[in-house]
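Q: I'm writing up a methods section and want to include an example of the input and output format. Could you take the sequence below and give the corresponding predicted structure tokens, formatted cleanly so I can copy it straight into the document?
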Amino acid sequence: MNGEPETTDHGAFRPDLVRGMTERRMSRRQLLRGGAAVGGAAAITALLSACSIQGSVASQAEDPVDWTAYWRDAKKTETLNFANWPLYIDSSHGKSESIALFEQATGIRVDYQPVIQDNANFYATVSPILRAHGATGYDIVVMTNGWELTEMIKNGFVAELDHSRLPNFAANASDAVKSPNYDPGNKHSLVWQTGFTGIAYNPKYIDREITSWEDLRDPAFKGRVGMYSDNTEIGAAALLAIGIDPGSSTPKDWRKAQAWLQKQRPLVAGYYDQSYINRLENGDTWITQAWSGDVFQAQQSGFPHLEFITPKEGQMTWHDNMMIPRQAENPMAALSWMDFYYTPKIAGIVEDYVNYVCPVPGAQDYVRNELDDAAVADSPLVFPSAEVLSNSHEFPVFRNYDEYAEWNSLFNAVIQS
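A: Here is the clean output for your methods example:
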């Protein structure tokens, strides 16, 4: 990342592995869903503070824009201000090859800022500015699908995209990132990276095949089961376990999922943030909820025996999304980057570093043949099969704050009891 120091030389270690061993993306995933996580009291306070001003200034959703005219009249500029999460783009010695190639191809200078630490606090920072029709200073922001992203769209805080200027997305994007339930038609967002939530286990301690979310309730693993402290994740897993698609679930379903988790609770060693992966590695837990990217990094950095599986009932998929704030000063530059990114070469360069699920399937051949990195190219945790993608589910999209609060209340009660 621009301005971010690298800890090692390319010739000595692969930077993604060093990052995996040292960082574990604590800043990236620990508070991924902000106020929904235990320990996220500050994030809840920040989010409620942001919501409390809704009556003071009219929402931009009440002030519609002719987006066809907006994009027709938009001027090309030579600057792009890009806000993203830490450790989330290719970089070597503080430089990003993908950004350098974009600058060379377009003449647009990129100010890349890894300033987003969690969704709730970032939303609380920018929403008052956007609600007052002000500019945040960012032309692209990256946010995870969830309550805050839904609010950004619903309140009219982000631009509708001109897909006529995004031919590479149309041609190269995976079907798995087209028209998600939180933004039908990709009207406001394009996926930056995707990740899976499934099950990981340590075969040193478990000598049978793991296939189901129900394996997290096996009495044989009592005291060795890890679960997330993120209530969005545990609620969704329990819904899958009882045969309900989280994306179309109802509050009645949520209460059934809570009951499943309450029965499981005596077996659980703890509800963890990203430290769960360390506990799996050292044997404190034997089986756990897990993010695919974390397990891939662990496999590549000294723990190749760890297994990640997609349960037969399905796994969850989350997406980090690029969006253009409505008052962006350089919207044409933002669209140019989005389209540039959705090419196999550029997506491949980024993917070879970040190791999440790539939104451009064609990047697999580029990573294998041009970057000579079979470990990434052949990993089903980076380039999953069509079968895995078909068994991956979206998180619910809350229709209003009351639904969001009800979900939090139900599943926080499990974690905190």
